[in-house]
Amino acid sequence: MASPTLFDPLTLAHGRPMKNRFMLAPLTNCQSHADGTLSDDEYNWLTMRAKGGFGLTMTCAAHVQAVGQGFPGQLGIFGDQHLEGLSRLAAGIKAAGSLSAVQLHHAGDRSPKELVGQPVSASDNAETGVRGLSTAEVEQLVQDFVAAAVRAEKAGFDGVEMHGAHGYILAQFLSPEINRRDDRYGGGLENRARIFFEIIDGIRASTGPDFQLGLRLSPERFGLRLGEVIQVAQEILRDGKIDYLDMSLWDVFKEPVEEEFKGRSLMSYFTELERGNVRLGVAGKITTAAIAAEMLDKGADYVLIGRAAIVHHDFPERARDPAFAQLPTPVSAEHLIKEGVSPTFVEYLRNTFKMVA
Hints:
The protein is an alpha/beta fold. It has one domain: Aldolase class I (TIM Barrel, Alpha-Beta Barrel). 35% of the residues lie in helices and 13% in strands. The strands form two sheets. It has an eight-stranded parallel barrel, surrounded by six helices. The longest helix is centred in the middle third of the chain and has 21 residues. The chain is globular.
């Protein structure tokens, strides 16, 4: 059977299809207000990508509890004070012809003390001063993820994605190194993964039949074990309650770090899973039209574009040319500002990713 092309539509189990196979990766950008309300800079940055042809435009990680903030200027979705900005953003993305999604996030032990006071996680950490959540607080965290999804639906978004990757709180529960709990959220893999399934079930029960639900996982680092992540991913795919699984691989061509899994690509462990009606996407250094097309040939249903979408707001449109490649970084601040990147975001890219000449 011929592989799909990058410009074939992609139906999802719920709601409207993606018009093509390009999803904007959720990107930290530090552009919103200190209280989590949407800024004009963040609105312009995201709607410009929607206008640039992305089939689905996803926000940065938006925190579901005030204590879950992960970076300054983070978009919030933990209170109704955020609804006005979120509604404006959902409408702007939709008007540009793209599906819209909010990424739901809690940074856990990666929350900076200066932003949240007392960071929390799956377990206490005497070395860092992080406090482990009580069972009741974990139950509240599940409810707050669900409430944030309901808020996103109320604001007019097509869906949400749960951020279960990059060592943030859901990944902290999954990690046998970080999670040393002895209640129903700790111990064996089933207990450590329980929070994922409870949030998925809660969102499905509390939102409408057309509301889309995605999940981002990263299979390595932060105390995770690849074999366990594969097992959890397969179970979630088999359940069929999410619309898409987004695998953040750091580099789509890399081999696994763990010795026993070497000899083939990290990506291949996920493309071979039975996925039913759930769509599988991959992220990690997709910088050219040719790499994006190759990922579909290798079994992905769609691709997530991150840094290349910072450099080119219209990456999907440019990728109609099979020879298109991202401008090499670093690029000039002037180029980025023309691409809808605010001065605040330019400084973040300069300091954190050395993307600015």
